[in-house]
Design brief:
674 residues; alpha+beta; five-stranded parallel sheet; 21% strand
């Protein structure tokens, strides 16, 4: 079973010959260092990099690329080597991003030679860093393990190598970057995006995949020669999919004067195999699209994106749909704004000329300005409608193909649900849409394990349809939404690897919590009263402290007996009733420190009612992802500035699917003795 690691976690390695696969969404330099038991590097000959790619038991890529495969044979490394550190760095002096915080989170997977994944790690939390130690393979009592590190360095490779006690750190870092820049390490173009083949008429929303550089949208063509500038759109977040090559444009090799190392001279398909290795399997190809009718675009296909599995391809495709919808809506809004500003400018010019205010000349000029405005807006709307229609057709084939973790509760996949043996890469927390494209709903997928807690806002609110829900109804809906989220988390984790605790101080949520309580999936009955809440908070706070101390000591396996190592979720209902300042501080601590060690927080609370805590509550509010139990356009998109309408994943009225899923989870936990 694949281990999905978080920072500091480790996992035993079952065999010595391995591959380390890197997917960064943008071209990076990959390398590795060989260190002693203290992690010290004894000379530049202990560093494998594009200029010197092979060492005993180690081979790295010879070029900067968005995807890498590093070959490792732990039996072949020297007995003096106790640590093999895998490092990533952004190339310098090119046109690529200047820091890891501006790109998608790099994904690292340790696999066997057959492609079976042993452990994986997504490096999150990077900002100004330009180099990072992704993970390390280390020797412990004669056995090898892998540990997720994720240690970044704003000073780049030189600072990273100096931190590992390499005396020639600056000289070696300079030579590595020089090798990359001079063509000793040539960029490998990423797999071509599938959009041009399947969407020949989808010009304003070219599919690039999550994490790929996105060109700014443009307005529709203006027959008089003017067009509106689109907003700048930095790379979107998400797991790396198809990426543009570095530093050239789509399908172009790097500007080194030499052809790409993996692209045939005749322009044939890209060779996905690791340079000079023949045992690396290529990623599964996406399914072929059905032939299109003459004069029509090709029909969409589920899984039509890059990825190593169907789950990853669907995840990347959903993110691609999100990007497409955001981009085409931004282009439409930009075109409308331009048309408005142009009409206002032309009308001002008409009114500023006294001659145009006499007779019919001014009326004709005003009518011409309004006509041009209407034509521009109409053209923009036609482009938007065409793109939305394509996305609707894609959603109609993608939605039925989604696995349970990505699917709505009304998807038939839940009727064939079985408790999984592996953790999925993401979870669906609802749907997103925009007012200009109300026909299309894009799944809101969040990577697992959760990196932020959730605040289910139970405050009195007006829904988008104009109806109002009172405070009691909102509290009920808020807790029901929290139960639906918790049920999904329990359903997608293997048996016994996810534990749910509930604090319900006044017992007001008994009806909404009934599915969790009656199925027996809770770790204990909901805690009530101030004493019950204090006990649960103290136990979870102590667990965070113990795991943090073990990680800081470099001994994550040395935990006291009885410590539950599964992922933990705490649902807090009816906050702030029954909580004092000490409890709020404990909740803040769990929200800030808990996710890194597997403890997650889900608050069901009214922000206005909680305002009495003042500044004490603000950090807790900001650290959690706010969701609502009713449709609300509150989710801000930093990519292009849209306010997305969020719709919660409610169970259909009268459906028993949630109870059926929870009963299977409970039965699986009992069979595993949990």
């Amino acid at each position: 079973m694949t281990a999905e690691l978080t920072r500091g976690q480790n996992h035993p390695l079952p065999r010595a010959r391995l591959e380390i696969r890197v997917s960064a969404g943008t071209p990076v330099v990959a390398g590795a260092t060989l260190g002693d038991e203290n992690g010290t590097i004894h000379g530049v000959e202990q560093v494998a990099h594009p200029g010197a790619p092979t060492l005993p038991g180690l081979e790295v890529s010879r070029q900067a690329a968005a995807d890498h495969r590093l070959a490792v044979d732990l039996d072949a490394v020297s007995d003096a080597v106790h640590r093999v550190s895998v490092l990533l760095a952004l190339p310098v002096g090119g046109r690529g991003p200047a820091r890891f915080g501006a790109v998608a989170a790099p994904f690292i997977a340790v696999t066997d030679l057959d492609g079976g994944e042993v452990a994986s790690y997504t490096i999150t939390g990077l900002e100004a860093e330009t180099a990072v130690v992704a993970l390390e393979l280390y020797r412990r009592q004669g056995a090898w393990k892998v540990r997720a590190v994720g240690q970044g360095y704003a000073g780049g490779l030189a600072e990273l190598l100096a931190d590992q006690k390499l005396s020639q750190a600056h000289q070696l870092a300079a030579s590595i970057h020089e090798a990359v820049a001079s063509g000793l390490a040539r960029s490998v173009p990423a797999p071509p995006a599938t959009a041009p083949a399947h969407r020949p008429d989808h010009g304003t929303v070219p599919r690039t995949g999550p994490g790929a550089p996105v060109p700014p949208p443009t307005s529709p063509y203006d027959p008089q020669g003017a067009s509106a500038p689109g907003p700048q759109t930095p790379a979107a977040a998400g797991r790396p999919g198809a990426a543009q090559p570095y530093p050239g444009g789509p399908g172009e090799p790097a500007a080194t004067g030499q052809p790409s190392a993996s692209a045939p001279a005749g322009g044939g398909p890209i060779d996905y195999s690791h340079p000079r290795r023949q045992n690396a399997a290529p990623p599964p190809p996406p399914p072929a699209a059905p032939p299109a009718e003459p004069g029509q675009s090709a029909r969409p296909v589920a899984g039509d994106a890059t990825g190593w599995s169907m789950e990853e391809r669907l995840y990347n495709q959903v993110w691609g749909m999100f990007e497409d919808l955001a981009r085409t809506t931004a282009a439409y809004r930009s075109a409308v704004d331009f048309a408005e500003s142009r009409m206002e400018k032309e009308l001002d010019q008409v009114l500023s000329d006294p001659r145009s205010r006499i007779g019919g000349q001014g009326d004709a000029a005003r009518e011409a300005a309004r006509s041009r405005h209407g034509r521009l807006v109409s053209q923009a709307r036609e482009v938007l409608d065409r793109d939305v229609a394509q996305l609707v057709a894609e959603a109609e084939v993608v939605e039925p193909a989604l696995p349970a973790a990505f699917a709505r509760w009304d998807n038939p996949v839940w009727h064939a649900y079985r408790v999984p043996m592996e953790i999925p890469m993401a979870l669906r927390l609802g749907d997103l849409h925009l007012p200009e494209a109300d026909r299309i709903r894009v799944p809101m997928l969040i990577r697992l394990p959760l990196e932020r807690g959730l605040w289910i806002d139970s405050g009195r609110s007006a829904s988008l349809d104009g109806s109002f829900a009172d405070s009691h109804e909102m509290r009920r809906l808020g807790l029901e939404t929290a139960v639906a989220h918790a049920a999904r988390l329990l359903a997608v984790y293997p048996a016994g690897e996810f534990t749910v605790h509930v604090i319900d101080p006044a017992g007001s949520g008994a009806q909404a919590l009934a599915p969790l309580v009656q199925s027996g999936v809770l770790a204990a009955p909901p805690a009530q009263g101030a004493a019950g809440a204090a006990d649960v908070l103290a136990r979870l706070t102590q667990r965070v402290d113990l795991v943090q101390m073990a990680l800081r000591a470099g001994a994550p396996d040395a935990l006291p007996p009885g410590v539950d190592t599964s992922q933990q979720l705490l649902i807090v209902n009816d906050f702030p009733h029954g909580f004092d300042d000490r409890a709020v501080n404990q909740l803040r601590y769990l929200a800030d420190e808990g996710p890194a060690v597997g403890v997650h927080l889900m608050m069901v609370a009214d922000r206005e009612e909680s305002a009495g805590f003042g500044p004490l509550l603000d950090p807790l509010w900001r650290s959690l992802l706010r969701l609502t139990p009713v449709a609300d356009d509150h989710l801000a998109d930093p990519w292009v500035g849209h306010a997305w309408t969020y719709e919660p994943p409610l169970v259909p009225p009268g459906s028993q699917v949630l109870r059926q899923v929870l009963s299977q989870v409970a039965a699986a936990r009992r069979s595993w003795g949990r």
